[in-house]
Amino acid sequence: MQLERFSPQTDPLQPLTDEIVQTLRQVIPAGEPCALLDHPDHANVGDSAIWLGERMFLRRNGNRVAYSCSTRTYHEATLRAALPRGTVLIHGGGNFGTLWPHHHELRERSLATLHDYPLVQLPQSIHFDNAAALRRTAALIGAHPAFTLLVRDHAALRIGRDELGANTLLCPDSALMLGRAVQRAPPDVDCLVLARTDKERAFAGIEAAFQGLGISVAALDWLDEPRGVLHRIRDRLTASSRRVWARSAAFQWPMLQVWDRLAQQRTWRGCRLLSRGRIVVTDRLHAHILCTLLGIPHIVLDNNCGKLSGFIRCWTAWHPLCHLADSVAEATRIATRLLASPPTS
Length: 345
Description:
Elements: H1 14-27, E1 34-37, H2 45-60, E2 65-68, H3 76-82, E3 87-90, E4 93-97, H4 101-113, E5 119-127, H5 131-143, E6 147-151, H6 154-163, E7 167-170, E8 189-194, H7 206-211, E9 217-220, H8 229-239, H9 249-275, E10 277-282, H10 285-294, E11 298-300, H11 307-316, E12 322-324, H12 328-338
Parallel strand pairs: 1-2, 1-3, 3-5, 4-5, 5-6, 6-7, 8-9, 8-10, 10-11, 11-12
Helix pairs in contact: 2-9, 8-9, 9-10
């Protein structure tokens, strides 16, 4: 079997982008101002790719972001002053539930206090590891008069509707909005292993398994990022985010620009890392999504709660560059097969 060469310019992902746009337009009125909560102000590339996709949709839909925040800068009075009317959006991703509690705490706080705004949770995966936490979130959703939950897979759709009692819609991940905005750089190794180093990791020994195959391998995660000028500006704006003057457009606009630029920096860094491999092996969902957009053949292992397999089986299992493996051993067999022949034109 020859290693596929697949051009992002000919990649048939447009139906997924269209579905994102059609679903979001059902719940985000075109041309109205909005707030966008929970900027992913951390090094994880995937969350920044989601943010950029969300921002691309909002620009296309004519939605001015009057207020934005991270978990560190959220301030209800500032949101209300900046957005007297409009829709409050919560950033999408994989933190709905108990996996990453500081993000879910902001979500629950918004559900509890922002009853006079339509509240939309942008596409998420869902994972609760205890029934009490799920019941608490369900009660907050039940008390909110206008909450919509968008989810990325069928398991989350069932939880959202049956266990949380939410108005729940299925929607692809917002990072797919990036489309042709991402471009691949030339590879410098046969196989890039981009494996989680956090608590969502499910498989041990991923990196070591590929070192003995007689191919060139680079193994890494994408959680480290260099600090630069944007980080220093971010720190100053964060320190000022609860002052009275932070309620003005003169503050909110530059804050949003910094969030956007940081997300762009992180996403492009991730694309450069993934581009290093002729093929990529990963257990990160957005490494899969970005590889698909970049045209890189890749092998996917699941995380600890089935997030990747759930998403892939729902949206991208048909894609010729995606190979879902049930074990590290299977992943190495697929890698050997993919690398057996040079790329075709």
